[in-house]
Structure formats: structure tokens, C-alpha cells
Amino acid sequence: MTKTEFLKKYEAEKLDIGEYILVLDDITDESLVLGCAHDQGIWKVYETRERGGHFIMKELDNENDAFDYFYQIVLSHHKRTNN
């Protein structure tokens, strides 16, 4: 799915990722972020922890694959937060 499709699905399903925030425009080192950003020609799905600093979970070549993968990560956080 594209970034726009992801955002529509995220809002429609009212996914709750707890204390985490979504960042979709760039890579940040702020605390508790789930992100997906296009960086240097590659889509990077990443996470930051409470004390900051990011780590890349996966790098993908196209937007659809990146946001399909990112959706699964967000869904996993939603399930953990709501169980």
C-alpha cells in the first residue's frame, strides 16, 4: 500500500500504538517512534526506544512493500497495547 493508503487504513481502523508516535517523513532519534521514511533512495522501516536512537528494522526498495511491512509492525503494536 502507499503512504496515503496506510494513513487512511490507520485512521479507519483506529489503531492504538500506545506511547509510540508515527513519523513518516524522515528518520528521527526521538523517543518511542515507529517510522517509515524514504531515505537515500530506500524505504526504511525503523523504531526508536525510550532513550532515543533509532534502529532500522527493514529496508525496502518500493513504497508499497515498505508500507505493507510497516502496517504489520503497527498492527503488532496495536495488539500488544490492547491485550
Describe the largest sheet. Answer: 4 strands, mixed
Order of helices and strands: HEEEEH
Q: How many helices does DSSP assign?
A: 2
Judging from the principal axes of the Cα atoms, what is the shape?
A: globular
| Overall tally of domains | 1
Approximately what portion of the residues adopt beta-strand conformation?
Answer: 25-35%
- Got a strand count? 4
Please state the structural category.
Answer: alpha+beta
Low-confidence region ranges: none
Helix content: 25-40%
Mean pLDDT reading:
96
* Radius of gyration using CA atoms only: 12 Å
Explain the layout of strands and helices.
Blueprint lengths: L2 H10 L8 E3 L9 E7 L2 E7 L5 E7 L2 H19 L2
Parallel strand pairs: 1-2
Antiparallel strand pairs: 2-3, 3-4
Written account of the structure:
This protein has 83 residues and is α+β, with helices and mostly antiparallel strands. The protein has one domain. The chain has 2 helices and 4 strands, in the order αββββα. The chain has a 4-stranded mixed beta sheet, covered by helices on one side. A hairpin with a 2-residue loop joins strand 2 and strand 3. The model has no long low-confidence stretch (mean pLDDT 96).
